[in-house]
Design brief:
heterodimer; A: three-stranded antiparallel sheet; 14 strands; disordered C terminus; B: alpha+beta; Ubiquitin Conjugating Enzyme; four-stranded antiparallel sheet; about 15% strand; binds zinc ion; Ub_conjugating_enzyme (chain B); UBQ-conjugating_enzyme/RWD (chain B); UBC-like protein (chain B); UBC (chain B); ubl conjugation pathway (chain B)
Chain lengths: ~475, ~150
């Protein structure tokens, strides 16, 4: 789609200055922030490696996709359907879909794929592929579909001779004669069950039927057949169900894997297996860990561990300290460690913000990552640590501010005294200069002031030539 | 499917027809997207008072990425202005028509620049190499590699 007809006049900020139409696939320059259509700037850069607007050097590497706001602004501009008769208007980004799926004037390729004509969608029903060849059943000639209708009326049935009874019949009766010809060779109706009889039709009913062994168990065979059909159907249903379940299982596995990754050190393989085995050891562990789990989840908003699920999740979180230490050493190595005993109330007591502000020495103590509680317990512990940390940061900032103010006051005072000193010095120097000037002028009365013109010329810098009023062509 | 240059020129033409040309510039002829003609005269005080010139624009299929070929018409009794950057065959030595062309510029922008180039002229004279250039000049001024000297306006 190279051009659109926009219904409303477009905001000039959304118009590309190269093609003067609203941006198509807009891109922006990293260097100067100008926006162009991708195709426009790519072509312009092939011609000259500079930004067309400000002529700053620019390469293709410095051009990136424009802000998504700009993209959606131009994608949502209302355009007309390009089909001349179609009155449809829609957002620009939806036009391709309209043309592809619904525009009744859009030209689409032949649905049969037999010709490479493009047909308006509304004419699709009446479309006949002009050059598709159809074979006439009557005379065997090949005709295009357009000619076939006429031919059907013209084509005359030719008479044929039966191979078995040598009777003559017209072509349109061929199939009906084959079904009734008494001389034709047929096989037994029970051939599918194993009867190997073959013979003329006229001898089938009177001669073979009474002696056919399968005729006797006809009832059983049909019953058997219907039962088989039922089973086959059931089997198909079951297979579908298995497929669906397999899909579910795959999803579940993927979810489990994602959860495993998200849990990180809180997930241990061995415990996951033991919960599957339902060993008594695990049951014991579950009961022992239950109380503090429920306690710590009280304040947690996460829905995954409501009060009735801790017996499932608790075993996932090991109690041994060494594991937690190796879990993320680089994150924690800078802090001093103090083991906690797994309850959030414990953490909050140790990290009461009030006690912290009064005792800033304790700031280095960070709650340890305690894997013996649930993930939620640790998270709420960490949250409290962050709260207390921000509180102490606050007080630290305030103290710092006071210290800074004091220091500034002191420095100000010092500057003031220095300034006074300098003033005194200046007065003295002035007095000395006056003295000397008096002596010099006394000696060289006839000479004009020496330093007058010197200061004037050094201070005045003559202006350059006036800037040309016409911009360079 | 119209080419990019045709669509862009259609847009410019539409703007000219709806909003009109700037003072002193008039569209003379724009029958296709290959060549357009404008009349141009300098308004107010200038050395070219009362003179009307005709500008010819020729576009190739890469417009506006590549610059249009612009020159004054010197046939049918029309003349080019006597100016230090305009040759007697109508060719113009102006950097925005050469290495300083930018796709951001437009036909009207070129007209305005040339108008102000004439308006600011101090002395009516031909370029110093006029005779030599005109003898060998190609038909299309874009084929000329002009040297834009520092004082070129
Ligand atoms: Zn730029
Ligand atoms: Zn563009
Ligand atoms: Zn449509
Ligand atoms: Zn077809
Ligand atoms: Zn036939
Ligand atoms: Zn027969
Ligand atoms: Zn049989």
């Amino acid at each position: 789609m190279a051009s659109y007809n926009y219904v409303d006049p477009t905001n000039s900020n959304l118009v590309c200055c190269i093609c003067r139409t609203p941006f198509l696939d807009p891109v922006s320059t990293l260097t100067c922030g100008h926006t162009f259509c991708r195709a426009c700037i790519v072509e312009a850069l092939q011609h000259s490696s500079q930004c067309p607007v400000d002529r700053l050097p620019l390469t293709l590497e410095e051009v990136v996709s424009a802000n998504s706001i700009v993209r959606s602004l131009v994608d949502e501009l209302v355009v007309e359907c390009p089909s001349p008769e179609c009155p449809h208007t829609c957002q620009r980004q939806l036009l391709a879909g309209h043309l592809r799926d619904s525009c009744s004037y859009a030209e689409v390729p032949c649905p049969t794929g037999e010709c490479d004509q493009l047909i308006p969608r509304k004419d699709m029903e009446s479309h006949r592929c002009g050059h598709t060849l159809i074979t006439c059943h009557e005379c065997g000639t090949q005709l295009s579909s357009e000619d076939f209708k006429d031919h059907e009326a013209e084509c005359l049935p030719v008479s044929l001779v039966c191979d078995f009874c040598s009777a003559e019949y017209s072509r349109d009766l061929q199939s009906s004669h084959a079904e009734t010809c008494s001389e034709a060779i047929i096989s037994c109706v029970h051939a599918s069950n194993g009867c190997s009889w073959k013979g003329k039709r006229r001898s089938f009913t009177p001669k073979h039927i009474p002696s056919c062994p399968y005729e006797a168990i006809k009832g059983f065979l049909s019953l058997h057949e219907s039962k088989m059909a039922d089973l086959r159907e059931e089997n198909l249903g079951l297979r579908n169900k298995i497929d669906a379940l397999q899909g579910h299982l795959q999803n579940a596995t993927r979810d489990l894997h994602a959860a495993k990754t998200a849990l990180g050190p809180w997930y241990t393989q061995s415990l996951a297996h033991s919960i599957v085995e339902r060993s008594p050891h695990v049951q014991q562990r579950v009961t022992s860990s239950t109380p503090h789990v429920t306690e710590s989840t009280v304040s947690s908003p996460a829905p995954s561990t409501s009060a009735d699920t801790p017996d499932i999740f608790a075993p996932y979180f090991p109690e041994d300290e060494s594991f937690s230490a190796q879990a993320s050493p680089e994150q924690l190595s800078s802090f001093s460690w103090r083991p906690l005993h797994g309850t959030s109330s414990n953490i909050s007591q140790a990290w009461d913000p009030a006690s912290l502000t009064s005792r800033p020495v304790a700031q280095n103590n960070i709650a340890p990552l305690d894997l013996s509680t649930t993930l939620e317990g640790s998270l709420s512990g960490l949250r409290q640590s962050v709260v207390s940390l921000s509180a102490s940061m606050d007080s630290f900032g305030r103290r710092n501010e006071i210290a800074l103010t004091n220091e500034a006051l002191r420095v100000n005072e010092e500057i003031r005294s220095l300034r006074a000193n300098i003033h005194g010095l200046r007065m003295q120097v002035h007095a000395i200069m006056m003295d000397r000037n008096a002596q010099v002028t006394g000696r060289m009365q006839e000479m004009p002031s020496v330093d007058g013109p010197w200061t004037a010329s050094s201070r005045f810098i003559p202006g350059g030539p006036p800037v040309p009023s016409i911009t360079k062509l | 499917m119209a080419s990019i240059s045709a669509r862009r020129l259609a847009k410019e033409l539409h703007e000219i027809q709806t909003e009109g040309c700037p003072v002193g510039i008039n569209l003379l002829q724009a029958d296709d997207f290959a060549a357009w003609q404008f009349t141009i005269e300098v308004m107010g005080e200038s050395l070219y008072q009362g003179e009307v010139f005709t500008l010819l624009f020729r576009f190739d299929k890469h417009y506006p990425i590549s610059s249009p070929a612009v020159q004054f018409v010197v046939t049918d009794g029309k003349t080019s202005p006597v100016h230090p950057h305009v040759y007697s065959n109508g060719h113009i030595c102006a950097s925005i028509l050469g290495n300083e062309w930018s796709p951001v510029l437009s036909v009207i922008a070129v007209c305005l620049t040339l108008q102000s180039m004439l308006a600011s002229c101090k002395k009516k004279e031909r370029p110093p190499d006029n005779d030599r250039y005109v003898r060998h000049a190609p038909d299309n001024p874009k084929k000329t590699q002009f040297h834009y000297d520092g004082n070129s306006p």
